[in-house]
Amino acid sequence: MKHIGLFGGTFNPIHVGHLRAIQEVQNRFALDKCYLIPAALPPHKEPGEVVDAKYRLEMIQLAVSEYSDRLNSVVISDVELKRSGPSYTIDTVNHFKSILPDYSRLYLILGIDAFLEIDTWKFCVDLFYLTAFIVMTRSISVDTEGTLKWKVLEDYIKGKISDGYKFSISRSCFVHDEKQTIFFVDIDSLDISSTQIRNLIKKGKPIKLFVPKKVEDFIINKGFYT
Predict the structure, then answer these.
(1) Most buried among 45, 46, 74, 226, using CB within 10 Å?
(2) pLDDT band (50, 70, 90) for residue 142
(3) Which domains does the chain have, with CATH numbers?
(4) What is the DSSP pairing of strand 173-175 with strand 182-186?
(5) What pTM was estimated for this model as a whole?
């Protein structure tokens, strides 16, 4: 069986947190390949907030080339850029289901903030039959606070997705008799955000600690986010 990750997003801009997260998820889940998929027109964002898709794609290409020695089998996909209209995840997952061998297992990789809005996504219930989920979180532990966070996640999953999901403490995942598994993984680098980077640029502050050098140069040369 081939394990394939699908990591979509606006990437406005892509940053080192994204790249380190991919690396960590690949290692933990032994992914054979991971597709990076920029959204052409994100349904949940105002068009004016987002740099044109062709430039975001170019920044991703620059970032992956700079990190090529640390990222194994990462493939950049422009499938959503070629499709007209808003970029719906259900369409992207169905695309990869149609082109990959039947023995492939898909994992949709996304952050906790996006996951907690998934009930607003187009045909969201169908997604849980098609792909497993890897949800990247910020240090959910087993202490009192961590227990509360798990309860919030469990209430959301049971209330918004399916009450058939059950939490496995040993595997840090939610399992279901019919739907695909929802995994959770702590990623420390998620403290970096694209919003934070855009705000720094607007204030004229350096971003070299947060984006690859090639991406920093590209942003400066194009005058993005000022």
Answers:
(1) 74
(2) very low
(3) 2-141+175-222 (3.40.50.620)
(4) antiparallel
(5) 0.92
